[in-house]
Structures
1.
Amino acid sequence: MDFNYKDICKSFVKGLPQRTTDVIERRFGLKTGQRETLEAIGQSYNITRERVRQIEKEGFSKIRPKIKEYKNVFQFLNKTLECFGGIKEENALLKFLGKGKFQNYAFFLLFLAGDFKRFPEDDNFNSFWVVKKEAVSQAKKIVRATIKRFEKENKVLFLPELLKGQKLNREVFLSCLEISKQIQKNPEDKFGLRDWIEINPRSVKDKAYLVLKKQEKPLHFSEIANFIEKLPFPSKGETHVATVHNELIKDQRFVLVGRGLYALKEWGYEPGIVKDIIYKTLKEAKKSLSKNEILNKVLGQRFVKANTVVLNLQDKNYFEKDEKGRYTIREA
């Protein structure tokens, strides 16, 4: 149902004293689109913020008797909130009601009605509106349960995956998630916790990590830079290849496994040069190994030529070969 919120709001303030009209219009951004604080309005009139509050209150006492003339409008607002389970995050609700440029008018009508309760933003929740206070405890219960699920499964999920096992319908469940600051959705429509890299990558290194996780294989740093450019997350500018290379070198999450080729440490790749990998292989074996046994182990860790491994094995400062052609760590 479409209403002309602008005209409706104009009719509510019509007939009020000029200063009262100005205060209300500025408080709710009905003219400029920007809501102003009590403090800012008070300074412009050289009065206290408390006096501005009184003027606003007096204005509403004169406006509210007119509500009955627009009963269908407020019934629509109530029905809309009820469709979302009686609770809705403020920005999402205003966007739905106001369709862009009329959001401040919708906010004014919600505030004017008196039938809806607004909960302001805090550390854990965004601002939201409810029809009945009982909806708050239920929504927060769902949020806590979803956060625990994310912590347990430790992965991002699409909404249909989150809905499995839920008795609520899609819109009501989504309304519960929207009020939470801890649960967020990334540009790929995947939900997770706000401090997860998959939800809010904060640096080139984080985005490089996402690229490798998505590609599931080692990549050259130039390829990683190209893939970063294609990610749907906001970027401050062009991703430079040299910057990616420098960042990967400094981050322990990444392992250089070949010439310019990087893999994730969590995939089982060990840090170090080829010689370090040979040394670790022999140390863990606790026995001498043949050249082929060493090659199989090292080439599983590094994308180098077999001859590179053989040349490193010939370093007598680190390794020695017995009469059977098997290798061990040279004792100091």
2.
Amino acid sequence: MEYNSENIKVTASEIAEIIKEHKTRSNKDLVVALEFVKKDFELTKESLIKMTEHLDKLEFAYNKILKEYKSRNGK
């Protein structure tokens, strides 16, 4: 994964290094890492919400079909 902030390109491994060495890195590096982590957090959160909604729809469809199947088979 690559992140571009104010024409600064960094990879996920470079961000990992900044996080690992956060005590000795420059404020500029920390800001870049913060922006990367924030963006990744938001993307992850959005994906989880979409996946949760999809899972709920799948469960509803499954239960609806199962109910119909059971009613047809007297179970």
3.
Amino acid sequence: MKIAVRLALTALLGALGVLGFAPFGLFPLTILMLAGLVDCWRTAATPRAAALSGFAFGLGYFLTGVSWVFVSMHDFGGMSAPLATVATLLFCALLALFSALAGYLFLRLRSGVWWRDALLAAASWTFSEWLRGWLFTGFPWLAAGYAQTPPSPLAGFAPLLGVYGVSFLSMWIAALLALAWTKRDRLLPAAATALGLLTLGFGLARIEWTQAQEREISVSLLQGNIEQSLKWKPELLQQSLAVYLKLARENPAQLIVLPETALPTTYDQLPREYLRQLMGAAATEKGDVLLGIVTRDERRYYNSAVGISAANENLQRYSKSHLVPFGEFTPPAFAWTLSLLSIPMSDFSRGGIQQPPLALAGEQIMPNICYEDVFGEEIIRALPQATLLINLSNTAWFGDSWAQPQHLQIAQMRALETGRVMLRATNTGMTAVVNPRGEIEQTLPPFTSGALKAKVRGHSGLTPYARWGNAGVLLLVALGAGLAWSARRRQQ
């Protein structure tokens, strides 16, 4: 019974840690809950017990933070409620295995030297997050670093080390708190280290890592608010066409952006007259259009962003490269799941890994579609050529949930890492403009139909993270693990 209570309390720590993320933004709370996790690891009897604590924390963390996957499977995917509940639980349990790994590694390699163990905790946690970010195509959602977007001082480290680097620093501070609070002689050096990191982050946030161009362009980000359950009904196609054409005509700009699969048809089936009318809306500002729509090539379908420019007669297209398992493609071994879900357009082909930016409105624009912007090291492939980043999303799949504000917070981190403006055009929310400092400048209310008009500047240059990717944080992980390993060897 004592073990069950301990694990339940550890799961509660994980659940409370989610309050550090959007929409709540209580970023110090995530660090405090991580400190509680480290204390659970510290007092565990065996590495296996520490792994169990990590699993309990992760289960509470993900069941609270990403339970919106139930909405996509049940409300819009047609899966029965009991089966969707089991699938959500299994999915979150799979994610929790990574935090279990972090707990196991911490106690297995622990040296007993408190400051080394603090670095080891940061290394173990960050390694598990990095692994979660690419294994089985990756799911880095709710990496701890995302909770530290502005106004957190740790956001200043994002242009240097990326989100995993901010995770490392978050867990380092948390471990310092956990390992020092019971020992008076440790309190001063631990507090000084934590305060030093926060002060340094505050100073780094004042650095302009990239250069804004002199020329400013007007943009109009359209949010149609088409209900997902109705969107793909053929008889309602004209309604979607009319909604977006009306928004474009009423909100002209040098760049008009329509979100992911805004028009529920394929590009080749879109009436040419409609395209002329859409371009006519942009022509009043001598502008261009970026359109989220399905494209096809022979028998293959792509989730694409198509650039339509009066100055460039050639079709410019970006096709989504990082597809969503079970939503946009089905792994061969899981073809049987298709009978449990009814998701339209769920068999896409993958676009090229290295695709050039699109020349629109005088800028070099790099689109990313839906949750592609969760993968920071993939976004920086387009740099330094790209001057503007634009995310096209349709998160209507997740209903009125925390998915929308969490996704916007992810866009804040990508803007920080790249030193670029990140524009977001979404079907139901959250359509927004994020500046290179990771601050949300403008946003549309979710679940409303409208257009977000803004003036933005492209940026040139490279942040350290854009230049080196995750190499810096992986070096920190190796350093933390190496110090612990060397200390253990000397003790043996």
4.
Amino acid sequence: MHNLPPYATRELIYERLPLIFPEGTANRGYMIREMAASAIFTMMYIGAVAGNETYIGPIYICRMTNEQAALAEDSDRTTYKLNVTKKSFRPIGINWYADNTREPIRDETLREGLVQIGAVISLKNLPTTSSKPRYALQKSFSELFNPELSGEELNKQLEDWRETNLSNSARTRIFLANRSSQSSLDKVLITFPNGEARNVSSRPSSDISKAVIEVFAQTFLINPTVLWLSTSDEKVDFFDEHIASRLGLKIQADKNLPDLILVDLGRSAPLFVFVEVVATDGAITERRQDAIYKLTDSAGFNRQDIAFVTAYMDKQTSGFKKTISGVAWKSFAWFVSEPDKIVVFQDSPLSLVEIIKNFTLDNEKNF
């Protein structure tokens, strides 16, 4: 009989999951909820760990009970493994999940969550429709739930696992989503493209504004400058009236203006980029797009030199999920956690090949 991993309670597993998968991890919600802890507990409980040739399916998780989970002896754990799929087997207590909960366990927690990140392995030689058990924990991942780990030793093992097992892009997403604002308790320090540093009020959207100016502008624009920055409905933190006047753009505080206006002066004609920062609400909608066009039309600018961007912290945030349906066509979406990528909302009947050709950056810093 294969050795079972050290017994760890579901509560301990649940507590450690947010430490293993910090903010910015793709599909994090699937992997830190109680259902994920239940799945990991059950795999640990019966020894479904890579190398043990033991696997589970969703039914193993559904039929677990609090009473069964409290039986920590190896003999109890082995009995559950051998009998859980038998129709006659009924562990003491109430099942953790109804049998019809197998779908979210399989599709969300496992396939889209723990399997995608590499924490769980899945047998490849089984048909997709097969009901046979196919999932097991990656061995090094299972070791993160050893109850004897604590303090610096635990933190070091968590860090080592993330460094080894999360891809470069995933680590980048986590780093950028959690990076320090380099701020005091009530201020965020933003460095403008010209090197000027300015403190703005600390709000949920301030870190996104900081990333737009320090990262987005440098990534996608040739010679960016900040024309307008506002971190709240009541306060304009920065307005370069000199440049606005030289360009003939008459800007006044208005509910239709976005949080940021960037100008790319590295083109033959200036490119105006109107950026709405979304922490909870307020995407660039068609109504706001039309209102901004009136402003730029009156200044005599060609609409092909106007761009609209809605900036989010991450695709997993509630702000993105709440506002994505209202984002206007002929605009872009950008995520702090994936700084080298941009989403295009195209409204013309171009073929996919033409869209890719038109919007592939090819390392050129422009739209």
